[in-house]
Each structure stands twice: as C-alpha cells, then as structure tokens.
Design goal:
Blueprint (H helix, E strand, L loop, with lengths): L2 H40 L1 H5 L16 E7 L8 H9 L4 E8 L3 H4 L15 E6 L1 H16 L3 H14 L13 H12 L7 E5 L3 E3 L2 H4 L9 E5 L15 E5 L2 H4 L11 H7 L8 H12 L5 E5 L2 E3 L7 E7 L2 E9 L7 E3 L3 E7 L5 E2 L15 E2 L12 E7 L7 E6 L2 E3 L3 E6 L1 E3 L17 E4 L3 E7 L4 E7 L2 E2 L2 E2 L14
Parallel strand pairs: 1-2, 1-4, 2-3, 6-8, 9-20
Antiparallel strand pairs: 4-7, 5-20, 6-7, 8-16, 10-11, 10-21, 11-19, 12-18, 13-17, 14-15, 16-17, 18-19, 21-22, 22-23, 24-25
C-alpha cells in the first residue's frame, strides 16, 4: 500500500469523524438551547419569586431598602432635587425612579447621563416612553391575572385612560413590584434587598439607618402614621411611607384589593368615581382583612410639615447624613430627661369582631373602603410622648394595640424628637420667602427657631424669634427646602 493511499484513508476517516462529532455537538447544542429557552419561557416565577424573609435572618443581612416610584409629566416640582439629595445621603436606600421622557430635568434626551440628578450612586433614573410605562404596569397585573390576549388589550385601554391624569399613578403603587421589580433589581446588582419602601417624592428622609425600627421589619407590612398620639381607630397604611417584604405574596397583594381581583373588575371600576385613594383605602382594607398578612402601624416617626403639635421643624445636615428633628420650646419647670430608644409599655389584644366599616375616616377615602377599630371613644395614649401602635404579629391572627414610649430629649431650652422623614403638605402649597440660617433654620407656626446640636453638652440648643415676611410678622412660613440644606 502506497503512502498516498494511507494518507487518503486517514483523511476520509478524519472527515467522517468530524461530521459525526459535529452532529453530536449540534444535537447537544440544540438540546441545551431548548432546555434553557424552555426554562426561561416557562419559569419566570422562579426568577421573580423572592424567598421568604425570616426574622432570624435580620441580623445577617444588610439593611437595604429598595425604593421604587414613577414620575409622569414634563415638569418636576421645585423640592424634588432636595428630596433626591436626601435620599442620596442614605446608604440604606436605593431609589429606582421610572420617569417619562418628557421630564427633561430627569431624562433630558442626549445629555441625560450628565444631568445633575443622575450623579448619585444609589439613585437610578430609568427613562421610558409613557407607553412603555403603561406596558410594564399592565404586564405586572396581567401576569398575576393570567390575562387572555383581549383582556390585556382592554386593561391597557382602561389604564391609559386612567393615567390621562398623571396624579392617578398614585392609585397603582401597590402594583409597582409586580411591574418594575426585575428592572429595579438589575439596576442595583450588588445590593441585597429584603423589603421595598413605598416612598412618595414629596417626602424628605432623614437618617434612615439610625432611626428605622429595623426589628419591625419582621412583619409583611410596616407603615408609619404621622402623629405620635392620635386616635388609633383610624387604621390607614400611608401611601407616602410604607415598607413591604419582597415576597411573592406581598408583590401580588393587589389581587386582594377591591377592583383588582380580575381584569374585568379593574376595567369596570377604573373609570368610576369610587376608584380613588387606592394606595391607602383599597390597600389598607385588604391588609387588615387578610389574616395571613402580618403588619404594624407605627406612630410618630414620619411627621407632616403642618403638625400643630410641634412648634417647629428642621432638616439638618450633620456630615453627609440628613437629620430630621422636630422641636419645640421646653415648658417652664419641665423635667429634663432623655429616652434614646423606643420602649413598649403595654399590650392589649382585640377580639375577632374588633373592626367595623361604620366609622369616619379621612375624607379622601371612599365609604366602601372604611375599616376601623370598633370603639365609641378615641383610642389614645395618656402621655404626651407615648402613642398606640397597631400590630398583627407574624403567625398570630390577633390584632394588638401596643402602647409605646417614643424617643425624645428634653433640655433646658428645647424638647426634640427625631424623625425618619417629613411629608410635605403645606410646604407645597405656599411660596413664602425661605429663611434658613447657616446651621438650619426651623419653620414653625408661631416662631422661627435656629436649632443646632451642642456636641459638648450632648443635646440640641436653639434660638427663637418671631418670623417676618417683608418686615411684617407672619403666622406661618411653611417652606422647608433651601439651598443651605443641599450641601
């Protein structure tokens, strides 16, 4: 046999082997692709579903809160840059803000990455067309509803009609996790989130890491009522500051709300006059009536800027962290004392028939969404610095009233209480002259106060004076924001 014949034989065998191996590789590749594609197509819930957050894990995770909100409309409010600045100084918060492209100050077309509001590492502004925003919302709802094709079309039409008034986006807050969680999660790949914070864009946050009652996050839902000692019968989960676990149960909690049980229910209700205050009325009633959902309503840690119980308020910056402190002059003869941490005083369990829909609530919540603690008289604590928390503990269907003593400090000059945040109410409605001092002026109902921390004495000190506007004494200077606080 010649050498040429031997080489030809080797070449033919090599070619046969190559073709055989190629077929094997082809089928292995095809089967692998099919398996992966099928897994991705058939199993999105495996990626979306979050593991249950256990109380025993609380100390082992970082205290990161995912904040998700949506801004529709071209013009942003004047206070939004300060709101974002305060968030940026809170390493415990990560804000995913969806905005429509017409909001030039947020999205700004080609120059978007260079815009000042895009400079913060813990804030991601995700710009979309309005149609894309609507599609994400509809997608979140329809995945939970398992919509048919025509149902999805009809839901899209109803939602688009609803959002012709951009403010109505508030009514869709309970859907945000179903709609935007995957996008938000991709924006912060290094963060580990166990909860998300439903935070309105007219809320100034303080030092979240320092003042957040992290132990309360064992509950499915934690909301913060504005005044410490108010009537506990009004059980409303606040749309502007509520924390929820990132679990499948809570991400789809909107399915338990009135008018969100099905596509047809949403379509029928969304165009009616009673489809209002969904994020507070519908949501609160659904949570209170769901015996498998644990919750806590914590009083007195998120203030309103028109809170008449306190003479003054300020937003202070100490180093890189904003500190929100409510303050008032110490009454003559009042004992000097300090309560640095919250204390539980007493617990009272309510019976199975403790709630009723025959009650008065905030005027913006429709009568059909009323659900209050049944009692003829106001339910209030008996001391100024205590309040009533309402709680359904994990694994316990009973609802309890907990009397708590809130942190406060009484010095000779001023009585102070720290806050997680302050919700702008009056401040958005007035254009009064802004008066801030180098340390931070305090706007009040009757006087102007400069509040600062005396590190040697280890308490706050203050100076008071009657405020004036153009030389004339005024009763209220409600505006809180200033360039002095954004350094």
């Amino acid at each position: 046999m010649s050498l040429a014949s031997i080489l030809d034989g080797i070449g033919v065998r090599a070619a046969q082997l190559f073709r055989s191996t190629s077929k094997i590789h082809y089928w292995i590749g095809a089967l692998t692709f099919t398996a992966i594609f099928g897994f991705l197509a058939l199993g999105p819930s495996l990626f979306d579903e979050q593991p249950e957050f256990l109380y025993s894990d609380l100390d082992s995770i970082s205290h990161d809160l995912l904040v998700v909100n949506v801004w529709l409309g071209a013009n942003i409010p004047v206070y939004l840059p300060q709101v974002l600045s305060n968030i940026s100084k809170n390493p415990s918060l990560s804000l995913f803000l969806v905005a429509s492209w017409d909001a030039v100050e947020l999205c700004g077309k080609e120059s978007r990455p260079e815009l000042p509001l895009h400079k913060y590492t813990n804030i991601h502004i995700h710009c979309m067309t309005k149609e894309e925003i609507y599609n994400n919302l509809v997608g979140g709802m329809c995945r939970a509803w398992q919509c048919k094709k025509q149902e999805r079309v009809d839901v899209t039409k109803s939602l688009s009609k609803l959002l012709e008034t951009p403010y109505r986006m508030n009514d869709l807050k309970p859907v945000y996790m179903a709609a935007f969680y995957k996008l938000a999660r991709k924006s912060f790949p290094e963060r580990r989130f166990s909860h998300w914070l439903r935070l309105d864009l007219d809320v100034f946050v303080g030092d979240i890491a320092k003042h957040m009652p992290w132990v309360d996050l064992e509950h499915d839902v934690v909301s913060f009522t504005p005044r410490l000692n108010q009537d506990a019968r009004e059980t409303v989960f606040r749309g502007y500051f509520t924390i929820m676990k990132l679990t499948q149960k809570m991400n789809n909690i909107f399915l338990r709300m009135p008018n969100f049980e099905s596509p047809s229910a949403f379509i029928a209700a969304s165009g009616t006059d009673t489809f209002v205050s969904v994020d507070e009325g519908h949501f609160s009633k659904a949570i209170l009536q769901a015996s498998d959902v644990s919750f806590k309503l914590v009083p007195g840690q998120v203030f309103l800027d028109n809170d008449a119980d306190w003479a003054a308020m300020t937003i202070m910056l100490q180093g890189q962290t904003p500190e929100i402190v409510f303050a008032k002059p110490t009454a003559p003869g009042q004992a000097l004392e300090e309560k640095p941490v919250r204390e539980l005083i007493s617990i009272q369990y309510l019976g199975p028939d403790a709630f009723t829909d025959e009650c008065s609530m905030y005027f913006w919540i429709p009568k059909k969404d009323h659900w209050c603690i049944k009692n003829d008289n106001p339910i209030m604590a008996n001391t100024e610095n205590s309040g009533i928390a309402i709680r359904r503990a994990p694994g316990d269907p009973r609802v309890a009233l907990e009397t708590i003593l809130a942190p406060f400090h009484v010095s000779k000059e001023v009585t102070t209480r720290p806050a997680l945040a302050v919700h702008l109410m009056e401040s958005k409605l007035h254009e009064a002259e802004t008066i801030f001092g180098p340390r931070g002026w305090v706007l009040s109902s009757t006087e102007l106060m400069e509040l600062y921390y005396d590190r040697d004495a280890k308490h706050y000190r203050s100076k008071f004076q009657r405020p004036t506007l153009n030389g004339t004494p005024v009763d209220f200077l409600p505006r809180l924001y200033s360039n002095h606080t954004s350094s």
